[in-house]
């Protein structure tokens, strides 16, 4: 079995993929997560009324920091020099939609960085609001789109 672009080497053992021969290209990924909560909880988060402080600001920073640490969290994930990470959080009824965008110019994609940013931002919101609503759920963690790289572009059909 060839070891190129697979996490299994010729002996069937897990290893980090060698991306050394791949071209550096501009790569971008967008991921999403949804935090479902009671209406009062969503209102308190959006209104900055939590006792722990500005949950939106803390969650954005947590998502950005998590994207930068993805290779330390996900086994066999390459460390990437990110050129941009954004985390946006908006209210959608009884939910908060978290959208994370990660960009780089490099030899491997940033899908995992975007997914990690969205997930950690959602977990941070949960942590900051759990005193109000322990029944919150995090759902819909998914890649929304990616561009760049050998595998081409992807856009999730809604």
Automatic annotation (TrEMBL):
<comment type="pathway">
    <text>Cofactor biosynthesis; molybdopterin biosynthesis.</text>
</comment>
<feature type="active site">
    <location>
        <position position="127"/>
    </location>
</feature>
<dbReference type="InterPro" id="IPR036522">
    <property type="entry name" value="MoaC_sf"/>
</dbReference>
<comment type="subunit">
    <text>Homohexamer; trimer of dimers.</text>
</comment>
<dbReference type="GO" id="GO:0061799">
    <property type="term" value="F:cyclic pyranopterin monophosphate synthase activity"/>
</dbReference>
<dbReference type="InterPro" id="IPR023045">
    <property type="entry name" value="MoaC"/>
</dbReference>
<dbReference type="InterPro" id="IPR047594">
    <property type="entry name" value="MoaC_bact/euk"/>
</dbReference>
<dbReference type="Pfam" id="PF01967">
    <property type="entry name" value="MoaC"/>
</dbReference>
<feature type="binding site">
    <location>
        <begin position="76"/>
        <end position="78"/>
    </location>
    <ligand>
        <name>substrate</name>
    </ligand>
</feature>
<feature type="binding site">
    <location>
        <begin position="112"/>
        <end position="113"/>
    </location>
    <ligand>
        <name>substrate</name>
    </ligand>
</feature>
<keyword id="KW-0456">Lyase</keyword>
<comment type="similarity">
    <text>Belongs to the MoaC family.</text>
</comment>
<dbReference type="InterPro" id="IPR050105">
    <property type="entry name" value="MoCo_biosynth_MoaA/MoaC"/>
</dbReference>
<comment type="function">
    <text>Catalyzes the conversion of (8S)-3',8-cyclo-7,8-dihydroguanosine 5'-triphosphate to cyclic pyranopterin monophosphate (cPMP).</text>
</comment>
<keyword id="KW-0501">Molybdenum cofactor biosynthesis</keyword>
<protein>
    <recommendedName>
        <fullName>Cyclic pyranopterin monophosphate synthase</fullName>
        <ecNumber>4.6.1.17</ecNumber>
    </recommendedName>
</protein>
<dbReference type="InterPro" id="IPR002820">
    <property type="entry name" value="Mopterin_CF_biosynth-C_dom"/>
</dbReference>
<dbReference type="GO" id="GO:0006777">
    <property type="term" value="P:Mo-molybdopterin cofactor biosynthetic process"/>
</dbReference>
């Amino acid at each position: 079995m060839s070891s190129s672009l697979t996490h299994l080497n010729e002996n069937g053992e897990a290893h980090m993929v060698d991306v050394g021969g791949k071209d550096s290209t501009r790569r971008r990924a967008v991921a999403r997560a949804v935090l479902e909560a009671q209406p009062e909880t969503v209102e308190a988060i959006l209104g900055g009324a939590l006792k722990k402080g500005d949950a939106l600001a803390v969650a954005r920073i947590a998502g950005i920091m998590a994207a930068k640490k993805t290779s330390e969290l996900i086994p066999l994930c390459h460390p990437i020099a990110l050129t941009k990470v954004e985390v946006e959080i908006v209210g959608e009824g009884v939910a908060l939609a978290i959208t994370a965008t990660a960009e780089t110019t490099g030899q491997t994609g940033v899908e995992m960085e975007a997914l990690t940013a969205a997930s950690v931002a959602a977990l941070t919101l949960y942590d900051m609001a759990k005193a109000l609503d322990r029944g919150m759920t995090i759902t819909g963690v998914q890649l929304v789109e990616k561009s760049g790289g050998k595998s081409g572009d992807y856009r999730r059909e809604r």
